[in-house]
Amino acid sequence: MNAWHLHPQLADDTHPVAHFGLCELRLMDDANHPWLILVPRVEDAVELIDLSEAQQQELMREIGTASRALQRAFSPHKLNVAALGNLVPQLHVHVIARFREDIAWPRPVWGMATAQPYSPEALVHRIQALQDALKA
User: Fold this and answer.
1) Do residues 22 and 132 make contact, with C-beta atoms less than 8 angstroms apart?
2) Rounded Cα distance, 23 and 134, in Å
3) What is the pTM of this model?
4) β-pairing, 23-28 with 14-19?
5) CA-only gyration radius of the chain, Å
6) Residue 58 scores a pLDDT above 60
């Protein structure tokens, strides 16, 4: 029996997009940036080194899948990929589509602007665009 559960802060800040082999793929509720979060379903994983070698390889594949979906859907100038976990200890990886004209460019997105939650309509549209890009 797997005792894994999504950290409450991640549950509050994100919306489900897809269920990968290792990770839950979630959309950060911040319309300032197309921003995905991958959360490995591994109990007590805090650091990348808490994953087995096979899980680390699968995580890299899934990061690639999420990155390609952001490229297809949004054609960003750059993709930022990070696993910080300073505030939320559960292992999670950010994959963020960045644009030269975005609110934080060229700096990191953290702390640069107040998160702008998606409207219900925009959320449905954004998730559908990501799911379509994942299928492509």
Assistant:
1) no
2) 14
3) 0.95
4) antiparallel
5) 14
6) yes
